[in-house]
Design a protein that fits this description.
The protein has 370 residues and is an alpha+beta fold. It has seven helices and 23 strands. The protein has two domains: 253 residues, TIM Barrel (Alpha-Beta Barrel); 95 residues, SOR catalytic domain (Immunoglobulin-like, Sandwich), CATH 2.60.40.730. The protein has a 17-stranded mixed β-sheet that branches. Strands 15-14-17-20 form a four-stranded antiparallel β-sheet, with no helix packed on it.
Length: 370
């Protein structure tokens, strides 16, 4: 259950960005090996193990998730990918994950779901799956992920409001909420061989993200590379940034399940966002008064142009997002708010740097104690 994860242990390594005993891991969870449709035109980089090795030499890059398309995988390839992950993690500081990207773009109710830490291949192809789920049954898919315990799902590039079998047109489902930890709010060009860190983001999914939050889902915000060429960590400077207290695979998964991550176009911008001293991704109860604090630091000293605080109420399908509070030319923000009702409020930030880079935090959810 992602709401109950507690991160423990402290290990600060000089090769990672850290502040106040928190380590900032910069990486990507959406990439493909030759086991599905990745590593195009790359004869020397094919297997997940070779992808991880390449990524370990990329700049400002601490983790890579290979998420091959489930319907292109054989069972043997999927389990070999899991073995590649385990083998690589024994001897490298880069954290490797292997999983699947589930789903096909056949109708407007389809959608792609990234799944990690799941022991079996989930599919519908004849004889090529461990666990069978119909390609249109997203509810069963999410229920399977939730039942696995320590697995998690993450929504990739949701292009239409009817994606994932009308997830946003249906009633809120707590089990589905437990399965899904976040979604891509930013993405890069999937079919581009660029390896000079220079691709600009070409996707922005505010509309779907905000609707999901209003419906009551607790989702973090991520940045996807969606690599189909062998340019892992090098296509763009955008990163999903995960906040951990020790650097290992288990802590990365725990932090993802706790929604302690954010989307950043900048590859070394560190965001410290808290409410009542609880970090982003938290779900808290308050006596009624909350204090919101935000601080942005950047190794390159990129100045902040503007900060927008986004707020709304969970469980209000037709509610509105308020993004009217804007501050400019500052890297810090503090505000005290009195909650006047017992509805669950959510708060997150959109931060724009002078060079045009956009950072989107995961929310913190607050509710007044009864």
């Amino acid at each position: 259950m992602k709401k109950l994860i507690i991160i423990i242990g402290v290990l600060i390594l000089s090769s990672f960005h850290s502040a106040n005993e928190i380590v900032y891991l910069f990486g990507n969870l959406h990439a493909h090996s030759s086991y599905s449709d990745g590593c195009k035109k790359s004869p020397n980089i094919k297997t997940p193990l070779e992808c991880y090795q390449y990524a370990s030499e990329s700049q400002n890059f601490n983790f890579l998730g290979i998420s091959d398309h489930n319907h292109m995988l054989t069972k043997n390839e999927y389990h070999d990918g899991l073995n590649n992950e385990a083998l690589f993690n024994k001897n490298s500081q880069l954290i490797a994950l292997y999983g699947m990207e589930w789903g096909k773009d056949q109708v407007e109710t389809s959608g792609h779901v990234i799944i990690f830490n799941y022991s079996n291949l989930i599919g519908w192809e004849p004889h090529e799956f461990d666990d069978q789920v119909s390609e249109t049954d997203y509810k069963q898919l999410f229920y399977k992920v939730a039942a696995e315990g320590n697995s998690f799902a993450y929504l990739a590039h949701p292009k239409k409001m009817k994606c994932f079998s009308n997830l946003l047109q249906n009633n809120y489902d707590k089990i589905i909420d437990d399965a899904i930890v976040g979604m891509a709010v930013r993405t890069s060009k999937a079919q581009d061989p660029n390896n000079t860190y220079s691709l600009e983001p070409n996707g922005l999914f505010y509309a779907y993200y905000d609707k999901a939050l209003l419906l009551g889902y607790h989702l973090g915000a991520g940045f996807d590379h969606d690599n189909h060429y062998s340019n892992f960590g090098r296509s763009t400077q955008g990163r999903t940034v995960v906040l951990v207290k020790s650097v290992n695979r288990e802590e990365l998964i725990a932090a993802m399940k706790s929604m302690m991550f954010y989307s950043s176009d900048d590859w070394n911008a560190k965001v410290d966002f808290k409410i009542n001293n609880k970090p982003m991704g938290s779900i808290i109860e308050s006596e009624g008064k909350i204090e919101i604090t935000l601080k942005i630091t950047d190794d390159d000293n990129d100045p902040v142009k503007s900060i927008v605080m986004v707020t709304g109420f969970s469980g209000y399908r037709d509610g509105r997002i308020d993004s009217s509070l804007i501050v400019t030319e500052t890297n810090t923000f503090t505000r005290k708010i009195t909650l006047i009702d017992n509805a669950e409020h959510f708060y997150y930030f959109r931060i724009l740097q002078n060079d045009g880079d956009l950072i989107i935090t995961s929310p913190i959810w607050c509710k007044k104690k009864a």
